[in-house]
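Predict the 3D structure for this chain.
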Amino acid sequence: MRWLTLFCFLIASTVFAGDIYKEVLPDGRVIYSDRPGKESVEMRIEPLQTVKPPPRRVEQSRAMEVKPQQSPAPAPTYEELRLVSPAKDASVRENSGRVTVKVELSPELQVQSGHRLAVELDGTRLAGRFTGQQMELSNVDRGSHELAVVILDPSGNVIRRTQTHRFHLHRHSQLFTQ
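Done. Predicted structure below.
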């Protein structure tokens, strides 16, 4: 089976390495083909330019980066991170599935240190990097959901987490007609 695959690749490479011909028709259209035509001209195609990527740096482990005599700077602490909206066990009525998430945070989010907020919906961290205290979720399915907000450091480690709130999203059913 391996030999058959190799043979097919070798045959295909000789087929695709053929000549290319260009022909300009009387109405001005240009046709490129692998077969010569009445008034076609053989095209000379230069080989593709390739660039060798720079050598990949091997990253050292964190243990090697931190010297024993140096202690890392203490991580800033957040005194409060509280989920304000949607409230616990709230009903949100929004046909488009948009849910506005608001948090209270003290002290302010330290964006310059690479901190960001992330939303976890039903145990799954949603894509998006939020730096404000109000976030907009879109196209949330109808039903009950578990919601939490976390503060992440630049490495993606959780610094602080809100309590999980359950909320209920009500969307108008397309099956319901008046």
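The helical segments are 2-16, 62-65.
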